[in-house]
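Recall the central idea of this unit: under ordinary conditions, the amino acid sequence of a chain determines the structure it adopts. In this exercise we apply that idea directly, starting from the sequence alone.
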Amino acid sequence: METKLSALNSRKNIALVAHDNMKSVLSDWAQTNRDTLAEHNLYATGTTGYRIEKTLNMPVYKFVSGPLGGDQQIGAKISEGEIDILIFFWDPFEPMPHDPDVKALLRLAAAWNIPVACNPASADFVITSPLVSEAYQRDIPDYDSYIAERIK
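Accordingly, the structure predicted from this sequence is:
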């Protein structure tokens, strides 16, 4: 499939997601990185969003809870080009009933070429990269040409 360049602004749209056992870890991480996160737009699934908003005392756009469709809502925003970074602290030791939704979310992040961090160490690397606060050009699938070829 062909690709095209897509511009990311210096102010990123960052999605924050955490499984139940990882919500406090994500909240602690967010508090440590509050100053950097304040420079960006924050999005989150339901309970995680409320917790992060309270911890940081700053607005977070909240979707519904992950098992109720929040993961899919974030996935849709990724495919629409509205989420630039996914910070998803998932619990590798706890099976989740909505694992297919989680896998779909991670697949979309990979397909649309956005950075993903799944634990505090990878999130530290992402959030401290100079690129997090700079404009950036990323390659994304060119579905316009893909669709145009099949409509002819």
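The chain has seven helices and seven strands.
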